[in-house]
Amino acid sequence: MQKVQKWSAQKNNQLVLILLVGGLLFRAIIAFCMYPTFDEAYYYLYSLHLDWSYFDHPVFVALTTGFGPWLTGNVSQFTIRLGTLILYTGSLLLLYLTSNRLFSPRTACLTLAIATISPIFQVGFGILSLPDSPLMFFWSASLYCAVNEFFRQPGNQKHGLWKNESGSSNLYVPSYRLSYLGILVGLACNSKYHGFVLGLGLIGFCLTSPPHRCVVRSPWAWLGLGLFVITIFPILFWNMQHDWVSFRFQSERAIPRGGYNLLSVAAVYLAGVAYLFPTIGLPLWWVSLRPLVLRTMPLFSHKSLTFKGDLDGTKLLNLWLSLPLTLGFTLIGGYRQILPAWSMPGFWTATLLLGQQATLWEQHQRRWVRRWLLGSGIMVASILLITLLQVTTGILQKPSQYALMGGFLSPKDDPSTELIDIQQMRRGFASSPILSAALENSSFIFTNRYYLGGPIAMSLKPLANVPITCFDIGKDLRGFAFWSKADQWLGENALYITTAPFKNRKDLMANYRTYFSSLTEIETIPIRRGGVVINIIYVYQAKTLLKPYPRSYGI
């Protein structure tokens, strides 16, 4: 029996190593080849303007995005993702340790496999340099710390009991770990404002779990609260200096505008399932809602109304850390647009329950569970690789020299053509004497959308050190409103850089000509894929800024 257990443990350890290392290598390949997305490139600008916090996100995304360029001295799509690759591997390891602590090594392996397979987890948390990457690392660390605090002995989750060294059972007693938890939740808030939902979920768990209500009287909890406030000082300090603009910007997103559309709710639900991948997303919804449904399902017995079952501590903690995001954002989708990543930390937490359920399924249908995970993994990997090849070489594009069977997707119908190959753009600037001279004679660069500034900055970093700003007639300047003053470049020359989708915007050109003495196109840089031009970078020389460009917020 001991030999079987030892063999099983070795097999689990091998699987964990394969999932962690293999997953890291797979994500690294995509990170190396995939062009930077607009959000990632925009966050690269954060790293050029280090501050306590930023208009739309806290500080950690600047640190994770800047980590690779600072370490290597090179600016590329891979280096800005280096921090994400490392942090997500840590997040997976922490999720594994949490599941192992709550359940068993086998359950932890299955949980790790599920989290490794899901495409939105891989891409949104593990490849792209987004605020979600540090958020999920500190979210996972907070979850691991909470489990070690509230359930100190495996198998004692139901009644909040733990065993002391003599083996006798004791009621839960708060410990020093609550102070650590306050710091970790604060670090999650410094990553993304979702961290505040994490903190409220932990408080909700303690208030609704009878054995853990004593937390509110614990000095350790109050110390943890104090450390939490100290940890989020960068957010508070920056916002105090800027009229609390970040909190106003984020809170306005939750305010209903217009009517409520149930079809939009359904669309958000289906989109979430698709991004998780249906064979993962549907079971995650099932294990998330099942405890709640069983808890509230009425049973009639002897004409009396009762409730079926009590939630054990594990499920209660999971519900508080998952449903506010998964169910909450799905319902919010009825009155505003929801981005896929917003609800995903809740599904990340729910993988613990799905891993536990998969262990139960495996006891009866081991081969089915293996086929489910292996088949899902192969399908997800294939889809991601096909997407990568399409974005970088145009294997589905028509025409393209790399097209399979002649291709079928026209560049004008492919939204991925808007992504900019910064290497091509860099070569275009380096090889043009006109652009080289224009960069030397310009005090700043501006573009018409905040998200275009990032690719421009990444392309020009080795060639020139010209400040970049945004003149948006819609006044959505994001962080650019705080990285320069409105009158900073009065009387100076500039370059206006934009892309093909905005070339024929007559309102843009008419607007900009009222702010400069002249505005003249001087060069174009074609962006090719599969030997075909799919986008064009337009560069204009703007002479003498006559008056400050208006801003609705900023400095």
Low-confidence stretches: 159-169, 299-310
Average pLDDT metric: 91
Q: Portion of residues in helices?
A: 55-70%
The quaternary structure here is single chain
Structural class: alpha/beta
Strand order of the largest sheet: 6-5-7-9-8
Distance between the termini: 71 Å
The proportion of strand residues reads: 5-15%
Rough shape? globular
Offer a concise description of the structure.
The protein is of the alpha/beta class. It has 21 helices and 9 strands.
Notes on the protein architecture:
The strands form three sheets. The chain has a five-stranded mixed β-sheet with strand order 6-5-7-9-8. The protein has a two-stranded antiparallel ribbon with strand order 1-2. Helices cover 56% and strands 10% of the residues. The chain is built from 21 helices and nine strands. It is globular, with a radius of gyration of 26 Å. It is α/β, with parallel strands linked by helices and 555 residues long.
Quickly list its features.
555 residues, five-stranded mixed beta sheet, 56% helix, alpha/beta
Layout of secondary structure:
Elements: H1 2-33, H2 38-48, H3 60-72, H4 82-102, H5 105-117, H6 119-126, H7 132-150, E1 161-163, E2 169-171, H8 177-189, H9 194-208, H10 219-231, H11 233-241, H12 245-252, H13 262-276, H14 278-296, E3 298-301, E4 304-307, H15 313-332, H16 344-364, H17 366-393, H18 422-431, H19 433-440, E5 444-447, H20 453-460, E6 468-470, E7 494-499, H21 506-513, E8 516-529, E9 532-545
Parallel strand pairs: 5-6, 5-7
Antiparallel strand pairs: 1-2, 3-4, 7-9, 8-9
